[in-house]
């Protein structure tokens, strides 16, 4: 059985590590925060001193950090993965970064005799914890098949989106445009209905049994009605970053994105007002403008 590494042990990375350990994979991890390293140890994983040590002790390494520069540092830095990985090893980038950023690091990895899989994920904290992530995998077919059992340890819906590196990130950018726009539509519809005098619980019941019902809707609505705007595992800065990638890709391809552009600007405003908040905290901005508060009271959500 292959030895696996995980670099970046935040909400997503620690969930990935937990499920790898659960499925019997010997797992080593690294994070800049010592408390996350301790959590990995408690789960049965092995903390490393740096990225290089992870590479020295793994056949396959997941990278789940925040942005493209961090991915580059993890791989090409002074104590980066390429200093430790053996030839034939595989790097799986599950972080969401710009397609151009992952394409830029492909050649250095290939020149060192290693493999690269471009596989951003969707499903959030709960998906990572439960091993039910949706994975958008761009890799050579044989490489995809070789790592499929490892991907299946952390994901439920695993899509091979193509062989060209960057296609995974492009798929994720399109998906985030839809998700971000869906969030803002949920925020606005709840504010509209509540301001007009409809009980927020009634709105929840009707929306959740209509054609727009989804896990995304129910989770988002639950957090709004329960006034849970922090520490839910979906920090506003992440979606703001992802929508920026979506808008950049739209510009590069000459695609007009009216709805996504509005969502991006709303998330920008939310970042300024609620820098420590999660995605749902944006509804508070709309509540302020409408002079209402959306709050559940029946305990059904």
What does this structure look like?
The protein has two domains: 4-164, NAD(P)-binding Rossmann-like Domain (Rossmann fold, 3-Layer(aba) Sandwich), CATH 3.40.50.720; 170-290, N-(1-d-carboxylethyl)-l-norvaline Dehydrogenase, domain 2, CATH 1.10.1040. It is globular. The mean pLDDT is 96. Helix 10 (167-195) crosses helix 13. Strands 3-2-1-4-5-6 form a six-stranded parallel β-sheet. The chain is an alpha/beta fold. The protein contains 15 helices and nine strands.
Q: Could you name the key traits of this structure?
A:
alpha/beta, 6-stranded parallel β-sheet, 3-stranded mixed β-sheet, globular
Strand order of the largest sheet: 3-2-1-4-5-6
Mean pLDDT: 96
| Distance separating the two termini | 42 Å
| Named CATH architecture of the largest domain | 3-Layer(aba) Sandwich
| Helix run count | 15
CATH topology of the largest domain: Rossmann fold
- Along the chain, the helix and strand elements come as EHEHEHEHEHHEEHEHHEHHHHHH
Q: Which band does the percent of strand residues land in?
A: 5-15%
Number of DSSP-assigned strands:
9
In short, what is this structure?
This protein has 301 residues and is an alpha/beta fold.
Compile the SSE list and pairings:
Layout lengths: L3 E4 L3 H12 L4 E4 L3 H10 L2 E2 L3 H6 L3 E4 L4 H9 L13 E4 L5 H6 L1 H6 L3 E4 L2 E2 L1 H7 L2 E6 L2 H6 L1 H7 E8 L4 H29 L4 H9 L6 H11 L10 H18 L4 H16 L8 H9 L11
